[in-house]
Amino acid sequence: MNYLKCSILLLLGTALFLTSCKDDEDSCIETIWYEDADGDGLGNPSVSLMSCDQPDGYVDDDTDPNDTGLASTPLSAFDEFNPDAVIISFDGNEVTIESNGLPNHTSPYWEETAPLYIDPVVAVRQTPGRIAGNRSFTLTVPIVPEIAPTSTVTGLGAIGIAVTGVPIFNDLEGPNRPLEEMIVETFDYAGAHNGPSGYHYHIEAYDVPENTVLSHDDEKLVGIMSDGFLIYGRKEMDGSYPTDLDESGGHFGVTPHSDGEEIYHYHIINEYYFGNIIALFAGELQGTPNTIF
């Protein structure tokens, strides 16, 4: 009888012990863990989960402003934009470029009474209209643009904004109508002319004494494309032509603004479109395009 009592007490004791252990396991305090995709020890405040134990790839820090592992657009590049035409503003992980489209260089497309008006230097003839201040162009892009899974064909209209504040157009003059000699004859030395949407660039600026602002066969910043990637002139910082450009003129490399860090960016491709002109951008956008309105 005593043996039976001892056995029962032993079983009860074991059950109580196991239950107590299980309660201890269930009573763990869950912690918020933040994804650390780039492995720098700093977590993404936008991606988190609750767990008692630290999951792989997560940390307890939530202060990483860029957890993609991709380089952000150098903020110093925005200092190059014409302050009389362009307003740059930042909101979280986005930057907005607002422009009135008025360039800071001379052109025969200004009104003849305007301070920046000059007689035509290159243009044989001109398209109707003048540079006017009743236009506006706004582009909002991520500070950390990413290459998209598929590239995007550019359409008619603005596909980027130049450092002067003038919109950048592609190599088409109309639906399925590439630039041709008759159209090129209307471009001023800046590679621009007037159209229904106002004054805009199609081609690289000419090498003339009047060109004191725009990129021509150099490493200068040209502007920003609608996918958020910067576009530079034909050359690298050392004066050489890049040899590893993709079909859109883009590659990872150091720029005058990236402080030694390699970032993805475009170049004007060092190929003559026809005759003696070079298109500013005639490829597909490698990032996700945003609307310029």
Structure characterization notes:
The chain has two helices and 18 strands. The protein is mainly beta and about 290 residues long. The protein has two domains: about 1-60, no CATH class; about 70-293, no CATH class. It has a six-stranded mixed beta sheet with strand order 9-8-14-15-17-16, with no helix packed on it. Strand 10 (about 170-175) and strand 11 (about 175-180) form a beta hairpin. The model is unreliable at about 20-25 (pLDDT under 50).
Query: What's the number of helices?
Result: 2
> Mean pLDDT, as a whole number?
89
Oligomer: single chain
Q: Would you list the SSEs in sequence order as H and E? A: HEEEEEEEEEEEHEEEEEEE
Q: Helical proportion? A: under 10%
Distance between the termini: 93 Å
User: Percent of residues in beta strands?
Assistant: 25-35%
* Estimated radius of gyration: 29 Å
Q: Using DSSP, what is the number of strands?
A: 18
